[in-house]
Design brief:
The structure holds two protein chains of two kinds.
Chain A (H helix, E strand, L loop, with lengths): L5 E4 L2 E5 L6 H18 L3 E5 L8 H16 L3 E5 L3 H9 L8 E3 L2 H32 L3
Parallel strand pairs in A: 2-3, 3-4, 4-5
Antiparallel strand pairs in A: 1-2
Helix pairs in contact in A: 1-2
Chain B lengths: L4 H8 L1 H14 L3 H4 L2 H19 L10 H20 L3 H9 L2 H12 L3 H44 L4 E4 L2 E7 L4 H18 L3 E8 L5 H16 L3 E5 L3 H10 L7 E2 L3 H11 L14
Parallel strand pairs in B: 2-3, 3-4, 4-5
Antiparallel strand pairs in B: 1-2
Classes of the chains: A alpha/beta, B alpha/beta.
C-alpha cells in the first residue's frame, strides 16, 4: 500500500509529501503520524508540502486535523513549502489553517520548530541544575 | 444585361472611381491630419481593387465567398488600424460611405439611357455599401475594445510591483481601488515574490487605496491569509485616519494582523522581527 515516509530527526518528525495526496493517503498519513508521535514522543512535526500541486478542501482539512492531533499530543506542527497556487486555493476555499504554523522552506521551518521548542527545554535544563545542588547538598 | 454587370462596370471604371473617391475623402474629414495623402490614396487603391474583384463575381445577397472574405478582412484590418490611430467612428465609416457617390456616378454613366436598370443597380450597390459600413463600425469597435483590454492589462501589471525592502522583507504598495481581479494579481505577485526573495515579512501598503470598504478589507485579509500559509507574516501599513475610522465604523475585523500608519513604521517593525535595527551612523567626530 502506498505510504508517506515519516522520518525521525532528533526530537522532530519530518514528513515530506512528494506525491499527489489523495484522500485515502491523507487518512493513512494521519493514522501513521499519530502512531509515530506516540512511539517517539517527538516535540515537533515538520510537514513539507512543496511537492503538493493540487489541494481540495478535504486535504486542507486533513492538514488541519493532523496539526490539531499533534497539538493534543504535545507537538508543534509547522507546514512548509506551500506553493503560491496552493495558498491561493486554500484561501479561496475559506481555509486559512489558523492553527498551523507555517514557514517558507524546510530550513526556516526547522529553525521555527527549534525556537518554539527550546524555551521549554531551557526550563528543564534550568530545573535540573536547581535540583542538583539540592541533591548534592543534602548528603554533605 | 445580367446582375453582375454593375460589378464588371466598376472594374472597368476603377481608375475614375478611385480618383473621385480619394478626392471626396481628402475634401472633408480629418484624414489629412492623421494620414498622408499618399497613404489615403494607397489604402483606397488596394481596397477598391479587392472590392472590384469581389463585385465582379457577385454583388447581391449575403456577401459570401472567398472574394468577399478578402474584402471583409481588408476592411476589418483597416478599421482596426484606424481605431488605434485615433480616428472617430464617423470618420472611419466615412471611408466606406464616401465610396457610394463615385460608384453611383460610374453606374449612371455606364448604363447611359437605361435609367431603370441604373437605378436598380444603384440600389443594390447602396445596400452593399451599407453592409460594409456596418462591418466597419463593428471592426472599429472591436479595435477600440482591444486597445482598452490591452491598457487594462498593462495597468494591472504596472500597478502591482512587489519591492524587496531588505533581506527577507518585501513590500507591495497598492495604488487605486482594489477589486477582486486586482486582488488576485496582487496576491499572485506577492506570493511569487515571497518565494523568490525567501521573505518572512510582507508589508502591504495601502496609502494609495482611496477607500476601504468591507469588500476591500476582505480582499486584504485574503492576501494576508495566503501569505501566512506561505510562512510569511503580513503587516498592513498606510492606514490613514479616515480609513481607520471607516474600518471601525464598518465593524471590519482585521484580526491579529499588525497595522501601522506609515510604511516607515512597518519597516521598523519588520526589521525588529528579523532582529535587525537601524542606527544613526557614527560620525567622524564621535568616533
Amino acid at each position: 500500500m502506498e505510504q508517506i515516509p515519516i522520518l525521525k530527526l532528533g526530537q522532530f518528525l519530518l514528513v515530506t509529501i512528494q506525491v499527489e495526496l489523495h484522500d485515502q493517503l491523507a487518512l493513512t498519513l494521519q493514522e501513521d503520524l499519530t502512531q509515530k508521535l506516540a512511539k517517539t514522543h517527538a516535540r515537533g512535526v515538520l510537514i513539507d508540502i512543496s511537492g503538493l500541486e493540487i489541494v481540495d478542501s478535504f486535504i486542507g482539512r486533513s492538514l488541519a486535523h493532523i496539526a490539531a492531533i499533534a497539538r493534543v499530543m504535545d507537538a508543534t506542527t509547522v507546514l512548509v513549502g506551500m506553493r503560491p497556487a496552493v495558498a491561493i486555493t486554500l484561501v479561496e476555499l475559506g481555509m486559512s489553517l489558523k492553527g498551523i504554523r507555517t514557514a517558507l522552506n524546510v530550513e526556516k521551518g526547522m529553525a521555527l520548530l527549534q525556537s518554539s521548542v527550546r524555551p521549554e527545554e531551557q526550563d528543564e535544563e534550568e530545573d535540573e541544575p536547581a535540583v542538583d545542588p539540592g541533591a548534592t547538598s543534602s548528603p554533605s | 444585361m445580367d446582375s453582375s454587370s454593375a460589378g464588371s462596370l466598376i472594374k472597368a471604371a476603377e481608375s475614375t472611381v478611385l480618383r473621385s473617391w480619394v478626392q471626396a475623402q481628402l475634401a472633408h474629414g480629418r484624414s489629412r491630419e492623421l494620414l498622408s495623402e499618399a497613404q489615403v490614396r494607397e489604402q483606397s487603391r488596394s481596397f477598391l481593387a479587392t472590392f472590384a474583384a469581389a463585385a465582379s463575381q457577385n454583388i447581391e445577397g449575403e456577401l459570401t465567398g472567398p472574394h468577399w472574405d478578402d474584402v471583409r478582412a481588408a476592411l476589418t484590418g483597416l478599421s482596426k488600424s484606424r481605431a488605434s490611430t485615433g480616428f472617430s467612428p464617423a470618420e472611419t465609416a466615412a471611408f466606406v460611405f464616401s465610396l457610394k457617390q463615385p460608384l453611383f456616378d460610374a453606374v449612371r454613366s455606364g448604363f447611359g439611357q437605361d435609367t431603370a436598370r441604373a437605378n436598380e443597380q444603384a440600389l443594390v450597390l447602396s445596400e452593399l455599401i451599407d453592409r460594409l459600413g456596418l462591418l466597419t463600425v463593428d471592426a472599429y469597435q472591436q479595435g477600440r475594445d482591444e486597445v482598452i483590454m490591452r491598457q487594462q492589462q498593462e495597468l494591472l501589471d504596472l500597478s502591482t510591483p512587489v519591492i524587496k525592502l531588505w533581506e527577507g522583507i518585501v513590500a507591495v504598495p497598492l495604488i487605486g481601488t482594489l477589486d477582486s481581479e486586482r486582488t488576485q494579481v496582487v496576491m499572485e505577485s506577492l506570493l511569487e515574490a515571497i518565494v523568490h526573495n525567501e521573505a518572512t515579512i510582507a508589508i502591504i501598503d495601502i496609502t494609495g487605496v482611496p477607500t476601504v470598504d468591507t469588500l476591500v478589507a476582505q480582499h486584504l485579509l485574503k492576501a494576508v491569509a495566503a501569505a501566512r500559509l506561505m510562512g510569511a507574516e503580513c503587516i498592513i501599513s498606510g492606514i490613514r485616519p479616515q480609513i481607520a475610522q471607516t474600518i471601525v465604523h464598518l465593524g471590519v475585523d482585521l484580526g491579529d494582523v499588525v497595522t501601522k500608519s506609515t510604511l516607515a513604521d512597518a519597516l521598523k517593525v519588520a526589521l525588529s522581527k528579523c532582529s535587525l535595527a537601524i542606527r544613526p551612523a557614527r560620525t567622524q567626530a564621535g568616533a
